[in-house]
Amino acid sequence: MSTLTATPGSTSVTLSWCCATTPARTYTIRRDDGTGTPTPSSGTLVYEGDALGVVDQGLELWKQYRYVLWAADGAGGYLAPKMIVTSTRLPVVTGLQASAASATSAKVTWDAPTDPSVAAVVITRTDARNVARDIYTGTAAEVTDTGLVPGMAYTYTAHPKDASGRYGQISGFVRLTAQRTWMTSTVSPFVGWPGALACATATWCMQVNNDGTYQVMSGTSWSKPVAAFAGTGHPGIALSVVTSLTCPAAGRCSAIRSGRIVEFDNGWRSTGSPSSGWTSIDCPTTTYCLAIRVDGWSTARVGTSWTTPARIGTLKGVSWSDVACQAAARCFAVAGGNATSSNWRGTLTGSGWSTAYLGGSQQGHLARISCSATTCLGLGHRTRVTVSGTTWSISAQPSLDPSEDYTNDLSCGAPSLCVALNYGNVSRWSSTGLLERTRLSAGIGEIAGVSCPRTGGVCFVADDRGRLYRWTSTTRWVQVATTVQTTGGTGRIGCRDAASCFFVDLNGWMVAWNGSAWTRSAKYFTHPAMVECAGSGFCIAVDPTGRVHRVWSNGSWGASRTMPLAPVDLSCSGPTLCLAVDVDGRASRFDGAGWSTPVAALADPYAGGPRVSCAVGGPCMLVSSQGTYRRYVGASLTATVRFPSAVAAQNRLVSCGAPSSCISVTYDGSWAQWDGATWTPHPADAGSGWFGSLTCLTASHCVATHQFSNDWQVTVWNSGQWGFGGTYAPNEVPSAAECPTMEACFVAGGTTVSRSS
Question: Fibronectin type-III domain spans which residues (predicted)?
Fold first, then answer.
């Protein structure tokens, strides 16, 4: 005999022993209270026989017992006894599991105990801060644990408990990290957004929109958009659907589409042009077109056939940017040297191409050229070129504002009437010089294309918001039509609650969430706007460019009203305290009725203005990337204070989850925490860098998004720890998270909104 083991239950003990079997033995096992010297004849007889195990039943719970086993030696005596002491107890809870039920809840299950001594099972949750809490006591086999913090790790254990409240042995543990589950939907696709314009006559124009549709103006009205091409995505950063659009006659156009030449004649189709990579095309007539590539190849369409591609002379190391024709086989191209940024020209006549050097970089850089029937004008940065017949001349063109003097588009209808697009303005030229410079869509949209038909006396301009402007010598510039209602893109979201949110798209349309879907409503603004909500009864939408705002109350948006600055950041603690800051570091307060006169608050000229965050009920915190901060307490600003020397000066993002708790994060990930009196520095870790936005819901929980369109990961901050917060799929740089509840968060990006649950 070598061993004796005991497995206690609540009212029984299972005993087993081993293994004196040769010769065959009989065994005697007795139980006593553990006092005195045991003998084969003292104590309670539990078993006598030749088996190797027995269950001793009818015992008392929580009582200690001693068992002694004797094996007969075959000669009337016993071998040396084996002894074990054990206590009855409740059985361990088995089958414990935990799985996420939502961002803030978990489903915990276990095997229901069958032992009648178990009066209840107690489930205990311990968080990452080692704070334990009993979440369930009862006889069921599952529970849903609520009130979790997304991104925090939790440990669950189970205890059995008897009717008197005494606990049994703890089970094994299971771990779970609560996570938001993100669902991304396209809610605000881009529609319209003109990208190219060409007019054949004063009453016929072609417009191609960046959503892949085209429209035709016949007379004074525009056709409905017709789908023809794939869209290009974000109109602000994507290439146009077609480039170098030209229309020699009403109903006839050619353009470059993804490096190939397409034509319009009762619909768009391929022309079967040779090769690919074409970048500029001009068609002075319906039977002649010339296209060039940046690397100096050209091809002409004569009638219905394309010529074999030929070199534009023998120049090497130059980049050809544009081509224009006065007539068939009389065309002109401009190029820049890739090393010297010098200006070069190419002239095509019946005898072929000839090239020549025009001038060095001290005279600026040519970019575009356009021709009427007899003359051409070339423009770029501080440069003007004229062509009379086939004779070129170049001159420097000084500008009062060089940053805006770079021609992006150019069209000449006559020697005395050319229109150029220069960043945000439209300039009108003759062959002798600049006649006027005008801002048409300033602050409202970007000019998408200019066109002056050769019929003379009129020019057209289209902006990317779908507005058409016309110039004549009598009316000058006048907006004459809306070609298409451009919509799309997402702005900063504000939520009253999980079932009521708003954002303004890139063209000023309000888009609302009703708990199940996003719906575009009215065009409340002419520009993008940011929405901020505070509580269930108040939201404010601010258009920085237009310096106007609207307030949501009583179920609708109020009238547009002016505001005294153009905010770069905005935060509200309630309906009577919203603080806006502008690029000059000025601050203005909205008190429920209007905005206060701006006052100097916190300078941050190198970072585009300071950042501001108001805790619920106030106060507000302003920080700059120059290492300074101020607070707005009550109705006034405190003094400007520098961050402690150990806090990185580049603190730019800031969010306050409570009146005495703010987090500020630098680009490299170092961060600091405000406790109501001072900032405490913390070093960067693997999860706290490269943020584009920060939103703190409480004093212990924040959500951060990154500033890259290809980074689909949310980061969370929980009581000093940065961690993974789930994945989403914005199609552009994600905005700041808006979380009306701990579970429901919204993040906009491009044309999508990601919603967590």
Answer: 92-181
